[in-house]
Amino acid sequence: MVVLRESLSDIKKEFSEGFIEKIINFSRIIGYSVEIDAELKLEFNPDRQDLFSFYSINRAIECFYEGHKYDTIHIIQSNIEFKVLSSVRKIRPFVFGFMAHGKPIGLKLKSLISYQERIHTGLGKNRAKVAVGIHNLDAIVPPILYKAENMDTKTFETYDAQVNGTARKILAEHPKGQEYSKLIPSGVNAVFIEDSEDTVLSMPPVINGRRTVLSGGTENFFIDITGTDFIGVRNASLLLIYEMVVLGYSIEFPVINGYASGVLREIRNYINRDIDLNKNTIKNVLGIQLSDKTIYEALCKMGYSAEEGPNHFKVIVPGNRIDVMGPVDIIEDIGKAIDFSKLLETPLKLTTIGEGIKKVSKLEKVRDVMISMGFNEVMNFVVTSKTFYDDENYKSGFDVLNPKSLDFSVIRDRLYPGMLNFLSINRRRPLPQRIFEIGEVVENGVQRTKLCVMYESSDASYSHAKSALDTLITKIFTESYKVSAENIPGIIPGRGGRIEASNIKGIIGEVSPNLIEKFQLKNPVSFFEIYL
């Protein structure tokens, strides 16, 4: 997961009124979580890397809610030369660079540096595949060179003035050097980006030089992207080009000579690329017939540009949408724009004469009832930890011989220990916690299906578990039952017992203090577990 966070005071300074409300509403469209206290925190899946800054999210929100149109990016060709020497091939072979011009960056510098680091940790695999250097262009004397040189003779001062000396000294003494020196192949040479005065701009993927250090007053940038992976360098370059446009900068490409021409060609192909979208394919994937107007408006809302043809749309895909691989990805965005939750359910038309397994149908009904009561389903591993059963009667009888991890050493014979472990892992989540699991166990050598329902809260009691059991039995089993008082391991004596009915067997009660302590929980827990 990728986390964006910023103080609410800075958010209110940089963005218009109502931005936070739109962020919350937009999360239901894109699919990210929002937390608000003293700061605004967003948690993303790693697929939408084009949205990994608040400025890029604001741009997407403007398209979706305010009708802003997608603007085709126009690249200016600069006369600045960027030379790539063949000596880099065996060290860090792929490279691209571009210039960005605009107003002093001011408060946006913090966002740009954060975006750079998200590329490093995500797409760049902690700089192993891709690394980014951002420089003050006004401090550079063109042409710019990318070449390999001797680490024992090449000297420069680090961006923070901590170390001044040879490249090998910087790798040994500077914290960044110590952290990333392992990414430089063993030998005497490393790669450097320099200007015509032999001033080191950076030593990828480790550290930048002092001369081109950034400040809030920087208004002209040179951004280099280097790596060991061709696609990674292409994607990172596209993301940064569009991010700088979102921040209000115009883009120039240098005259690239040498080994980097292939990357440049690929980037030009991806900027404003077009994909044909067949109208019948949209209907087949979404399962509904949409009007041409609805499709066009949905595409615009999701940041695309489109031209309508007789049977298809020619869709212009922004280069930073590196997650879009083909038509189906665009159709998914159309579905998000019209809101999947508003699509009517339609039964599947089957050409077979088969029918569902009765047991599976029963489990689905149980699942629906539990969800309707506000419980969330969890799924734990069938092979689990032997420590869950310390001082208890373990009935599975199946141990994993020579397990690689003690966390996966036995086959479970009950569900509630795994669910207590789940609550332990999530103990920082707000209360109450209502969870259930339908899963397989092995008891006395026989495989059985069980349901466990668990409730954690500061006031969790036997009555909470029994209330859920009553509702389940009323809606599914439609029979009476009784609870026989019995001392059961894991349950507080006198606070639980054994469930007995013609078709229902199981246990119910409040979890004992020793188990609460064992799983490092801070609140009472009640549960029931029955055979299905």
The number of distinct structural domains comes to: 4
Average predicted confidence as pLDDT: 89
Low-confidence regions: none
**What would CATH call the class of the largest domain?**
Alpha Beta
Instruction: Classify the beta-strand content into a percent band.
Output: 25-35%
Biggest sheet details = 9 strands, mixed
What's the alpha carbon Rg, rounded to whole Å? 30 Å
Q: Which fold name fills CATH's third level, the topology of the largest domain? A: Phenylalanyl-tRNA Synthetase, Chain B, domain 3
Number of strands: 26
CATH superfamily of the largest domain: Phenylalanyl-trna Synthetase, Chain B, domain 3
CATH architecture of the largest domain: 3-Layer(bba) Sandwich
Would you write up a description of this structure?
By secondary structure, this protein is an alpha+beta fold. The protein has four domains: 2-66, Phenylalanyl-tRNA Synthetase, Chain B, domain 1; 76-270, Phenylalanyl-trna Synthetase, Chain B, domain 3 (Phenylalanyl-tRNA Synthetase, Chain B, domain 3, 3-Layer(bba) Sandwich); 273-342, 2-Layer Sandwich (Phenylalanyl-tRNA Synthetase, Chain B, domain 1), CATH 3.30.56.10; 358-531, 2-Layer Sandwich (BirA Bifunctional Protein, domain 2). It has 15 helices and 26 strands. Helix 4 (108-121) packs antiparallel against helix 7. 31% of the residues lie in helices and 29% in strands. The strands form six sheets. It has a nine-stranded mixed β-sheet with strand order 6-13-5-14-4-7-10-11-12. The protein has a seven-stranded mixed β-sheet with strand order 18-21-22-26-25-24-23, sandwiched between helices. Strands 1-3-2 form a three-stranded antiparallel β-sheet. The two termini are 36 Å apart. A hairpin with a 5-residue loop joins strand 23 (482-485) and strand 24 (491-500). The model has no long low-confidence stretch (mean pLDDT 89). The radius of gyration is 30 Å and the shape is globular. It comes from Oxyplasma meridianum. It is an enzyme of class 6 (ligase). Residues 270-345 form the B5 domain. It is found in: Cytoplasm. Its cofactor is Mg(2+).
